[in-house]
Design brief:
The protein is of the alpha/beta class and about 140 residues long. It has a domain of about 80 residues: Rossmann fold (3-Layer(aba) Sandwich), CATH 3.40.50. The chain is about 40% helix and about 20% strand. The protein contains five helices and five strands. A five-stranded parallel beta sheet has the order 2-1-3-4-5, with helices on both faces. Strand 4, helix 4 and strand 5 form a beta-alpha-beta unit. The chain is globular. The termini are far apart.
Length: about 140
Amino acid sequence: MKKKALLIEDDRPAGEAFAYMLKKVGFEVAHVRKGEDALAEAERLKPDVVLLDILLAGAMDGYGVLAELKAHPLLARVPVLIVTNLGLMQDIERGKKSGAKEYLVKSDWSIKDIADLAMAYAEGKADMIDAGRRS
């Protein structure tokens, strides 16, 4: 059975690139652009992993989405990978304290590596990843 990834990314070209690569590594992918749509889509999809941007279209940002996911009885344990362009130290610290499994700055990672990391989390194998790849 295919693993499921929920991609929450408002930038259309980035979203298309991520969705393509996630499908290529073996995911069924659902993609939403607004934070307000994320929880309903997560409830429908029951994802194995969530890739979450911080800056989103609409009123709710990624931190709001993450708080909703973590408060949801069925979704709280789903690993969330923050994938964002926000790379300032305070952004990274906030992201790490938010309950996300990873805080990935897009410019530091290839889309393929992010997709592979997402699959490792979806399969419960993230602890086996080469820690040397992480920045």
